[in-house]
Specification:
Layout (H helix, E strand, L loop, with lengths): L1 H16 L1 H33 L5 H50 L3 H5 L1 H45 L3 H29 L1 H15 L4 H6 L2 H55 L5 H42 L20 E8 L9 E8 L4 E5 L6 H8 L7 E6 L2 E2 L5 H5 L2 E5 L9 H6 L8 H12 L2 H5 L22 H14 L4 E5 L7 H14 L4 E6 L10 E6 L2 E6 L1 H7 L2 H16 L1
Parallel strand pairs: 3-8, 3-9, 6-7, 7-8
Antiparallel strand pairs: 1-2, 1-4, 4-5, 9-10
Length: 593
């Protein structure tokens, strides 16, 4: 029942996006049934006409013209469907369903990426859902075609000799059971191998992605990865080998049954009828032809049912994505009126889903409009997690986050995020144009070029881009363009920082995006941002304290708590953890000069 329900849901999607495909498939089913019947009948008719001593040749030709005329018409209908419409509609389906899936994927909560089980579901849905959908419909059409052929030729067989159906029933039952077990076994193996397949894919990516090249060339990383690949391959080989061995035995059993029932038993029975003069040679040939065809149609039905059952299992993954209801994303809520909001964090505690340990505990702070604050601390202090809460990637576990007095829970996440331009330390450079990398959208307004050029000037990358042939239309990276621009690590950070300069939002969040720059360059960039955006709220995240000395207020975090707060002068006077960290870094930097 679930198999049928899942497949019907998928077929409805196909009907919605590719209605012409449904219509052409209907005619293909009719044409296939007609052509199969003609091909069986023509054998008996021709042999009988040839054996007749007084047969009129003109009548033979006329009947052949009629038969072949119908056959050719049926073949034309099938050729239009399979030779043209199938490929066209498959492309149309993939195009439309991928758009829907991408839109759904964009609304997944961050928590779903943290959950291995949900991530596996998401991965399977996104990588296989598009083709599984159209494959489901194709299998359904294949099923209907074979059912139609089966009944068409089956009626012909019943008219000839009902006893022949016994062979058909036995063969179809065995084939169905074997295919059912085989498909179920392969799906189970596929699910069990999912994690190993992803690990194998990760190892392959490390070898071909440019960002890993230095480690590949200068360390023993290749040997380590090859060892890991061997471990993964052993698991994959064992899992698939066991399944292949069982599948081989199933196929042998099916072949033996087919030979005994379909060939040996049927031939002996029909030859006995010829011997007893119950039927003539024409009926013998037609019956054998019909039985062989019906058996093949049964295989087609069983194969289609297996594919439908197999697809239904994967459709579960697809439907998980389609029916996914985010808890944070796309949840709706209030609109924000203020252009310079006040943000309040009140006794906030947070732990990641399915985790017992709190990452943040009793966090309290207030960010006033146009204030420049810094959140500092060693790695693992909880700085980035706090920023994720400010961006409403998660709901807090305890306490409350407020924006202009409204709880984050009551405000649309899109309203909150449009207040920010955020740049993280793990920023990405995409294989699109310079302009699109800065704006993170396509060219839309007349002022876009001017905005991007100004942002590149402020980021210190103007001359580099101006020297390229296509200027702002230069494609970044060489992944899709041999003439693509490849920037150094520092230049990539400047390009990413240009996104901040190009944005028009009241709040700027910088989560250590300049960590690859030298301390002086990082300080200059941050100082420029603080100076240029006096009318904006700026939140700096850093563990390099020299870059945050100009902030209005500094919050020092340790083990998920705020342990000190104040401006640079106040914190230095306290001679607490901030003072120790600052002096240590200053001493280290002086020694390195």
């Amino acid at each position: 029942m679930k198999t049928f329900k899942n497949n019907m849901i998928m077929i409805k999607y196909v009907a919605k996006f590719c209605p012409l495909y449904i219509i052409s498939s209907f005619f293909a089913i009719i044409a296939s049934s007609v052509s199969s019947l003609i091909e069986v009948m023509i054998v008996e008719k021709v042999i009988n006409l040839v054996l007749e001593e007084k047969a009129d040749f003109n009548i033979i030709v006329k009947e052949l013209i009629l038969f072949f005329g119908i056959l050719i018409l049926s073949l034309i209908v099938k050729r239009i469907h399979y030779g043209y419409l199938v490929a066209r509609n498959r492309h149309l389906w993939v195009k439309k369903i991928q758009r829907v899936m991408f839109e759904k994927a964009a609304k997944l909560d961050i928590a779903s990426f943290d959950n291995p089980k949900e991530y596996d579901l998401f991965h399977r849905a996104l990588t296989q859902g598009d083709l599984k959908g159209i494959n489901t419909f194709d299998a359904f059409v294949h099923f209907l075609i074979n059912v139609a052929k089966f009944f068409t030729i089956g009626i012909y067989i019943v008219i000839k000799d009902p006893l022949l159906l016994i062979a058909v029933v036995v063969q179809s039952t065995v084939a169905y059971i074997i295919q059912y077990k085989n498909n179920k076994m392969w799906y189970k193996t596929s699910k069990e191998m999912e994690t190993n397949q992803r690990r194998y894919g990760y190892i392959k990516r490390v070898f071909y992605l440019e960002k890993y090249t230095c480690d590949i060339k200068t360390t023993n990383l290749p040997n380590l990865l090859i060892e890991k690949e061997e471990e993964v391959r052993v698991n994959l080989d064992k899992g698939y080998r066991d399944t292949e061995n069982k599948g081989f035995l199933y196929n042998i059993l099916e072949d033996i049954t087919s030979q005994i029932v379909r060939n040996f038993a049927v031939y002996v029975y029909l030859m006995w009828k010829v011997y007893k003069n119950i039927i003539n040679i024409a009926s013998f040939a037609a019956s054998v032809n019909a039985i062989l065809r019906v058996t093949n149609y049964i295989y087609g039905v069983v194969w289609s049912m297996g594919r439908l059952r197999d697809n239904a299992l994967y459709i579960d993954d697809f439907l998980w994505l389609m029916n996914y209801q985010p808890k944070v994303e796309d949840s709706g809520g209030k609109k924000l009126e203020s252009t310079h909001p006040v943000i309040e964090i009140e006794h906030v505690g947070f732990k990641y889903p399915d985790q017992e340990e709190y990452v943040l505990q009793d966090i309290n702070l207030k960010i006033e409009p146009r204030e420049k604050i810094a959140i500092i601390g060693y790695n693992g202090a909880g700085k980035t997690t706090l920023i994720k809460l400010l961006l409403k990637f998660y709901h807090v576990s305890e306490g409350d986050l407020k924006i202009d007095g409204n709880s984050f829970l009551d405000v649309d996440e899109k309203e909150i995020r449009k207040m920010y331009v955020s740049l993280f330390q793990n920023f990405q450079i995409y294989s699109v144009s310079v302009l699109e990398n800065v704006l993170l959208r396509s060219r839309k307004y007349e002022t876009d070029d001017e905005v991007v050029w100004e942002a590149l000037k402020k980021a210190g990358l103007y001359d580099k881009i101006m020297a390229t042939e296509k200027k702002l239309d230069t494609i970044m990276t060489k992944e899709f363009d041999d003439k693509g621009l490849v920037l150094s690590g520092g230049e990539q950070q400047k390009l990413a920082i240009a996104r901040v300069f190009a944005a028009d939002t009241p709040i700027i969040i910088l989560d250590e995006p300049t960590s690859s720059l030298d301390p002086i360059s990082e300080y200059e960039i941050n100082k420029k941002i603080l100076k240029l955006y006096a009318e904006k709220t700026v939140i700096l995240i850093s563990h390099r304290l020299s870059t945050v000395v100009d902030a209005n207020k500094i919050y020092m975090m340790e083990k998920g708590r705020i342990i000190e707060q104040g401006n640079h002068i106040q914190l230095m006077k306290k001679k607490g953890k901030y003072y120790e960290m600052f002096e240590t870094q200053a001493h280290f930097y002086q020694e390195s000069q």
